[in-house]
Write a structure and sequence with these properties.
Length: 643
C-alpha cells in the first residue's frame, strides 16, 4: 500500500500539507481499506468488479462464478477494516448485497467519498477527479483504476478537512457529528471529535445566523438533531459557507437529502420582519439589491403602480418573492430589469438557475452582452444557433458547474437532448417568458414550441419531484384578449394564477409614418429616406424589413452599389457571418436588413430610423410590434434607461 500512497501524493495538489501524525493515520486507513468499484449496465447487470487492498488488486469480469467472486473478494479483504469507494453506499454495496450477501465486506464500516465531496469541496464540483459527480477514470472501463481513484479522492478530502481545522475547527467537529454513524473513522484519523447534540445546535445556530435569516436560524437549530438524516444539516452548512459564488448544491444531494433544500430555503428564500436581522434587511430589499448588483440609485418612476409608486419596483418585488406574474410594460419601461434583478438575487440566495424563453437570437445576445457589461460579471449566457460547437459546449459546461445564473434560450432548445440533460443538473428558480405575446399571437403558427414550454416545465418538475417553479411573463404588446389567453394557459397547464401588472402600452417615444410608393420607386425611396434621416454615421443605424430573404439580399446589394453600408441578415446567413453583421450593426457601422417580422426584436443601438418595405404591411401588426425599433430613440439617460 505504500506505493499507492506515494502515488496519491504525486497526483494530488494538496490544499494543506498533513502534519506527519495525521499523514500516518490517513495512510493507515488507506492501507487497511478495501477499495472497491463495480462496472454495471444501466439496468444494474454486473460487468466488472475492481478491488484493491494494500499492494494487491483483483479484476473480475465476464461470466461471474459465485464461488470465485466470494473467494477473491474475501481473500483480498480479509485484513481490511474498512470498505472505501465512490458512491458505494447507494450503488456498489447494494448490488453486491443482492447477489453475494455472504461476503465479509458487508460487515465492515464504509467510507463513501461521494458523500464527503459536497462538504469537502462545496465551492464547485471537484474538477480533478469528478465530472457529473462521478470519478474520472485514468483508463477506459477499468474499475481497478476507479477504485484507486477513490483512494486519491479520500486523501484529498482528508487534506481539505485538515486545513479547515486551522480556519474553523468547529465546522469539522460539526461534520463529524453529522456523519458519526457512517464516516467516523475519517474524523478519528483527523483527531476531530464530534460535537455533542447540544454543541452541534449551538454551533449551527451561531454559524448560519450570519449566512441567512436570524429568525430561521434560531428555529432550525432546535430541529437539526431530529432531522431524518443529520447529513442534511452538514450539506446545507457546507453550501451556505460558499453561497453567493458559483457553487451549486449537487443534484444527487438534492434528490437523496431533500431536507438540504428545505433548510437553505428557510434560511435565505423568505424574509423576516425582524429589523435586527441584517441578512433579510439587505437581501430581501429590492433597492439595496438594485444598488449592489447594478449600481443604480432608484427604480423608474414611470409607469406607476396603482398605489402611485414605481411599477418597475412592484414587479421586481413580486419576482423576488417568487410570485407568478404577467407584466405589461411599454417599450423603454425597464422590462428586462424586472426579470434580470430577481434572477440574479435568486441565484445569490439559492444557487438556482433562471431560464428566459426568448424568440430571437439577436435579442438573446444583446441581452446577455448588456447584462454582463452592467453587472461586470459572466452570470448571463445564451444558447442559440450562431454558437460554434465548442462555444455551445462551453456554455453547457458553465451551466452545469453553476457559473450561469440566467440563461436565454429559444423554445426549440427544450427538445434538444444535451440541453435537457444539463439543466437537469440545476435547480430551476423561475421560467421567464420574454415577448410573452408569442404564446398567443404567434404561438400556434410562428413558434409552436412556445406552447410546449409549459408542458416541459410540468414534466421536468414531476421528474425532479418538486413543484413547478414560478412563471414570469413579460411583454410590451398585449391586448385584453391576449392577456386573458396567457393567464388561462398557465392556470390550466401549471395551476399558476399570474398576478397582472399592467403598465399600458402607450409609446410616446414612437412616431409612425406610412408612405405609399409603387414597386418601381421603392428602392430609391428607401435610399432617399436613409440619406435624409441619417445623413451622418454617428446619427445611428437603420433597420429595413423586407418580405422575403431574396428581397433583403437584393435590397442590400442595391444600396451597396449606391454607396451605402448595408448587409442582409436572415436565417440563411451562416453563423459566423451573422455574428459579424450583428456586431457591426450594434457598433453602428452598417445598416441591417432583416427578412421578416420574426427578426424584429431587441437590438440595442444608439439611434435607429426604422423603415419598412414589406410587401404586405398588416398595419395593425406593424404598429403593435414596432416598439423595439426605436427602443433607444430617447434623449441620453442613465444606463438603466436601456434595461
Amino acid at each position: 500500500m505504500h506505493g499507492l500512497f506515494e502515488k496519491l501524493q504525486f497526483h494530488v495538489t494538496p490544499h494543506f500539507h498533513f502534519p506527519n501524525a495525521t499523514m500516518n493515520r490517513v495512510k493507515k486507513i488507506l492501507s487497511r481499506s478495501l477499495l472497491l468499484d463495480l462496472e454495471t449496465t444501466p439496468n444494474g447487470k454486473l460487468l466488472k468488479v475492481g478491488a484493491v487492498c494494500g499492494a494487491e488488486k483483483r479484476l473480475l469480469k465476464g461470466v461471474f462464478d459465485r464461488s470465485d467472486v466470494i473467494r477473491a473478494l474475501d481473500d483480498l479483504g480479509r485484513s481490511a477494516d474498512y470498505v472505501l469507494g465512490h458512491n458505494i453506499l447507494d450503488h456498489d454495496l447494494p448490488l453486491l448485497q443482492k447477489s453475494f450477501p455472504e461476503l465479509h465486506l458487508h460487515t465492515l464500516p464504509v467510507i463513501d467519498t461521494l458523500f464527503l465531496s459536497p462538504v469537502a469541496f462545496p465551492e464547485n464540483p471537484y474538477h480533478h477527479l469528478l465530472k457529473d459527480y462521478r470519478l474520472l477514470s485514468t483508463a477506459l472501463n477499468d474499475p481497478v483504476c476507479d477504485a484507486r481513484n477513490s483512494g486519491l479522492l479520500f486523501q484529498d478530502q482528508c487534506d481539505v478537512f485538515e486545513g479547515l481545522k486551522l480556519s474553523d475547527k468547529g465546522v469539522v467537529q460539526f461534520y463529524a457529528w453529522a456523519f458519526s454513524e457512517t464516516m467516523l473513522p475519517l474524523f478519528h484519523a483527523l483527531e476531530s471529535e464530534p460535537f455533542t447534540g447540544q454543541e452541534a445546535k449551538n454551533y449551527f445556530a451561531s454559524r448560519v445566523a450570519a449566512l441567512g435569516c436570524l429568525t430561521a436560524a434560531q428555529s432550525l437549530a432546535l430541529e437539526i438533531e431530529h432531522l431524518e438524516a443529520r447529513e442534511s444539516a452538514a450539506y446545507a452548512l457546507a453550501w451556505l459557507r460558499v453561497a453567493g459564488s458559483n457553487s451549486i448544491i449537487p443534484p444527487w444531494v438534492r434528490h437523496r437529502f431533500p431536507e438540504v433544500t428545505t433548510i437553505v430555503r428557510r434560511l435565505r428564500d423568505k424574509g423576516c420582519s425582524d429589523p435586527g436581522c441584517s441578512y433579510c434587511q439587505i437581501n430581501h430589499n429590492p433597492h439595496k439589491q438594485l444598488q449592489r448588483l447594478f449600481g443604480f440609485e432608484d427604480f423608474r418612476p414611470e409607469p406607476r403602480a396603482a398605489d402611485g409608486d414605481s411599477l418597475q419596483e412592484a414587479i421586481i418585488r413580486s419576482g423576488m418573492n417568487d410570485e407568478p406574474l404577467l407584466a405589461i410594460l411599454p417599450t423603454g419601461g425597464g422590462k428586462s430589469l424586472c426579470f434580470q434583478l430577481p434572477a440574479l438575487v435568486r441565484n445569490q440566495r439559492l444557487g438556482v438557475l433562471s431560464i428566459v424563453i426568448s424568440p430571437l437570437q439577436a435579442l438573446m445576445k444583446d441581452q446577455v452582452d448588456n447584462l454582463n457589461r452592467l453587472t461586470e460579471s459572466t452570470f448571463a449566457a445564451a444558447l442559440y444557433g450562431m454558437l460554434t460547437p465548442p462555444e455551445r459546449g462551453d456554455v453547457l459546461e458553465r451551466i452545469r458547474l453553476g457559473d450561469v445564473a440566467i440563461l436565454y434560450v429559444s423554445p426549440e432548445q427544450l427538445r434538444n437532448a444535451s440541453f435537457r440533460n444539463v439543466i437537469k443538473q440545476r435547480e430551476i428558480g423561475c421560467w421567464i417568458f420574454d415577448e410573452a405575446h408569442c404564446l398567443s399571437r404567434w404561438g400556434h403558427s410562428f413558434r409552436p414550441d412556445y406552447l410546449y414550454v409549459s408542458r416541459f416545465i410540468r414534466e421536468m418538475a414531476a421528474q425532479q419531484e418538486v413543484p413547478p417553479p414560478p412563471v414570469a411573463c413579460f411583454t410590451a404588446t398585449a391586448k385584453r384578449d391576449v392577456i386573458e389567453e396567457i393567464q388561462q394557459h398557465f392556470l390550466k397547464e401549471l395551476s399558476q394564477d399570474l398576478l397582472l401588472f399592467d403598465g399600458g402600452a402607450e409609446r410616446t417615444n414612437l412616431d409612425f409614418e406610412v408612405q405609399v410608393v409603387n414597386s418601381a420607386d421603392k428602392r430609391s425611396r428607401v435610399k432617399q429616406l436613409l440619406m435624409e434621416r441619417l445623413p451622418n454615421p454617428e446619427d445611428g443605424a437603420s433597420v429595413v424589413y423586407c418580405a422575403t430573404r431574396r428581397g433583403a439580399e437584393e435590397m442590400a446589394k442595391w444600396l451597396q452599389h449606391s454607396g451605402l453600408s448595408a448587409e442582409a441578415f436572415h436565417a440563411g446567413v451562416d453563423a459566423p457571418e451573422k455574428r459579424r453583421i450583428q456586431d457591426e450593426f450594434i457598433a453602428g457601422n452598417i445598416l441591417a436588413y432583416l427578412r421578416d417580422e420574426r427578426l424584429r426584436h431587441g437590438h440595442r443601438q444608439g439611434k435607429r430610423s426604422p423603415g419598412d418595405s414589406c410587401r404586405h404591411p398588416r398595419i395593425a401588426g406593424e404598429l403593435s410590434t414596432g416598439g423595439g425599433a426605436r427602443r433607444a430613440r430617447q434623449e441620453p439617460r442613465p444606463v438603466r434607461a436601456s434595461l
